[in-house]
Amino acid sequence: MMADLTQDPKASLEGAPVIDFDKFKPSRSFIASRKRKDLIMRVLIALAFVIALIPLISVLWTTLVNGLKRLNLNFLSFNMTGVVGGNPTPSGGYGGVFHAIIGTLEITFGAMVISIPIGLLCAVYLVEYAHGGKLAQTITLLVDVMSGIPSIVAGLFAFSMFTILVGPGSVNGFAGSVSLSLLMLPTVVKSSEEMLKIVPGDLREASYALGVTKQRTITKIVLRTALPGIVSGCILAIARVIGETAPLLMTAGYIASTNFNLFDGKMTTLPVYVFQEYSKLNANCPANATAACVTTIPMERSWAAALVLILIVLILNGIGRLVAKVFAVKSER
Amino acid sequence: MPAASGKTADKVFRVIAYACGILILVVLAAVFLFLLFRAWPLIGGNQADNSKTIADFTGGKANGFWQYVGPLLFGTVLVSALALLLSFPVSIGIALFISHYAPKKLATALSYVVDLLAAIPSVIYGLWGGLILVPAIYPFWNWVATYLGWIPLFAGPAANPSRTVATVAVVLAVMILPIITSLSRDIFLQTPRLQQEAALALGATKWEMVKLAVLPFGKSGVVSASMLGLGRALGETMAVLMILSPGLNYSFKLLQASQNQTIAANIAAQYPEANDLGVSVLIGTGLVLFLITFVVNYVARKITEKKVG
């Protein structure tokens, strides 16, 4: 190239190969194919979303339609005692979920009482005390790993622990609480940790500068500032475990009557109720039964209980998000 | 006096916070140890009794523990892998849609929808799968078996009701979709803005920009997200229990009933009728499941950790 420049420009131009710059121009078909590909991917990506919407809408819609058939005050205020086959009970209903709602509330409350303080303090340790040490890294990693523990393993753990420590056959609501708290703990730690991290460092330093001890700074300044976020995280964690079935199947069991005592005897929860009714398939109606006898009643009860469960979960989710949004800490970022 | 008490409180609080941090480690160790203790008769007990219990469970099909857990493990991995295969492209598509294609207002709404999918309890997916999806999907599986039956995977005749591995995989795919979607979406959103704009400035179409800048950046995050999804699918109990018609074979016949069973669903199914030794056997299988999900989750988290650190 350099040599060419030193020569007579005209001569070099004549000898040089004529570069056809049009060759490098993208051909029309090439541009079209790129555009086509772009469009195809656009459509596929939008389609992926539609595909995901189908099951969501189907689940919510079928639960709503099938659940509303049997969801009434009677269903909510009676338990399953005195329910024989597909016959109506003396109260005029077909049995209900009162005992399951009580069980779900008590067991979930138990799980809350165990996991929220531990999870919160663990998050405090990770953010305020550990400063990214080796131990803290290990704990963070293991909390993440813990969030992947299958729920049935949590159930087996609580079951094994109670049979070994308390004695065989100890099926009670509290064992259910223990298994749920194992599932809830990582979520609580993670969300609290995130919330503590976004509390501005200036607040802590201002507090220390005034001579306030570390414990007071954490409880009165840091935790107070992060409170809405922590509350919202805990509510979402509750919403996650309130629908767990497998661990409660083996720890809390199933019973037809209402049990208010968390520490003694079997306890029915809503998800387990849904499953038990589903497993019954059909109810028996004797030949001389009246028209009020419904053979498909277990499925209908199952749907109605599922609707109650979904409503509870969705309301909890809504409250959690609302709390986070309304009382959000204004972070510096 | 107040100063002194403040110092004590300070120390006590510090100790409690440390204890709670360490408690996490203790709890994980306790999960492993309690399961091991309760499953001990399986390892240290009378082996003749063990093989008799297992033979009772399986109708004489298996005698040893590994003979028993082998097909279960195979079924678990098969169902989960299929679910991941179905869920992966859709999840990535949705994640890209939310992060790069949808307008901002729509994107927030769509994120809520994905979270909603995650919030629905598994027992409701099981109910929906068992009562709605199983009858609804039969014509499709039947069509697959008729026209694609020459592929061994889809060997017919398609079971009716289709309480098969294929149907379960579809439900599990729906269940792990929100996990993969939300994690990959977060990664995609972190793609450096300059790289994206550089790609566009060079004349790349939107898809080319995604291919050149977003996907390479998010690769490790996506891998980790799908492994977490896999971990979730491996441990899923209720949906499998309520839909699948179980069997204990090393079988790839996705459209036929009574071929496979998963560890988690097997525990829940056998547990109510198991005697003391039977429970030990089931907890032994649970221990295997625990170790597998632990490893999958650990590897998944390690991948992202490297990326961040």
Can you characterise this structure?
The complex is a heterodimer of chains A (333) and B (309). In chain A, 68% of the residues lie in helices and 0% in strands. Chain A is mainly alpha-helical. Residues 1-5 of chain A have low confidence and may be disordered. Chain B is mainly α. Chain B has a domain at 78-269. The model of chain B has no long low-confidence stretch (mean pLDDT 87). Classes of the chains: A mainly alpha (333), B mainly alpha (309). Chains A and B meet through helix 3, helix 5, helix 6, helix 7 and helix 8 of A and helix 1, helix 4, helix 5, helix 6 and helix 7 of B.
Quick overview:
The complex is a heterodimer of chains A (333) and B (309). With 333 residues, chain A is mainly alpha-helical.
Helix coverage percent of chain A = 55-70%
| Class based on secondary structure composition and strand pairing of chain A | mainly alpha
- In terms of DSSP E residues, the strand content of chain B is under 5%
Alpha-beta classification of chain B: mainly alpha
Helix content percent band of chain B: over 70%
Number of helices of chain B: 12
The major pleated sheet of chain A works out as: none
Radius of gyration of chain B: 24 Å
Rounded Rg of chain A: 31 Å
Shape of chain A: flat
How are the elements arranged and paired?
The complex is a heterodimer of chains A (333) and B (309).
Chain A: H1 2-6, H2 9-15, H3 28-68, H4 73-77, H5 98-130, H6 134-146, H7 151-165, H8 173-197, H9 201-209, H10 214-241, H11 246-251, H12 270-280, H13 297-326
Helix pairs in contact in A: 3-13, 5-8, 5-10, 5-12, 7-8, 8-10, 9-10, 10-13, 12-13
Chain B: H1 2-38, H2 40-44, H3 47-58, H4 65-101, H5 104-119, H6 122-147, H7 165-189, H8 193-201, H9 206-235, H10 238-243, H11 263-270, H12 276-308
Helix pairs in contact in B: 1-12, 4-7, 4-9, 5-7, 6-7, 7-9, 8-9, 9-12, 11-12
Keywords summarizing the entry:
heterodimer, A: 333 residues, mainly alpha, 13 helices, 68% helix, B: 309 residues, 0% strand, flat
